[in-house]
Amino acid sequence: MQQVIESINHWLIKVPEVFSHFSEAEASRRPMPNKWSKKEILGHLCDSAINNLGRFISIQYEKQPFRLTPYNQNQWVELQDYQHITSEEIVHLWCSLNKKIIKVIDRIPDEKLAYQCDIGNNELKTLEWLIQDYLEHMEHHLKNQIFN
Fold it and tell me: Would you tell me how many other CB atoms lie within 10 Å of the CB of residue 11?
């Protein structure tokens, strides 16, 4: 888990730095009418952090396998109205959430990393897999959509 923590710490430095170079207009520009802006993508990553933080905590004490509850990503982005919030506020939220995730991950006992969760269709994954998947999802959006 140390590698995951180091990677998230890297992004905690890089994301505010990169967003500081975007104008609000640039961060708000949608590449196509049905595609998210950079602010909305980062907002989506905030929503991912919110949902996964709860999962990372709950899996440690709930009955196994813990069943993940999906969420409607488009509705979360739309209803939280990230498009009309300043980049600075979204970056601050994203950083705060990921600092909390680091604290939670750092305190997970090794034996709990093997706890099972049902990610849908009765497909079982471990808590360790879920944490790694969280990082991979984040990096996909950051590298391929925000920093491109």
Answer: 18
pLDDT one-digit tens code per residue, 53-70: 999 999 999 999 999 999
For residue 73, give the CATH number of its domain. 1.20.120.450
* 73: three-class secondary structure by DSSP: helix
Task: Give the structural domain span for 40.
Answer: 2-28+36-146
Tens of pLDDT, residues 115-148: 999 999 889 999 999 999 999 999 999 999 999 8
CA 34 – CA 55 distance, rounded (Å): 29
| Count: domains in the chain | 1
Mapping DSSP to helix (H, G, I), strand (E, B) and coil, where does residue 21 land?
A: coil
Distance (Å, rounded) from C-alpha 22 to C-alpha 12? 17
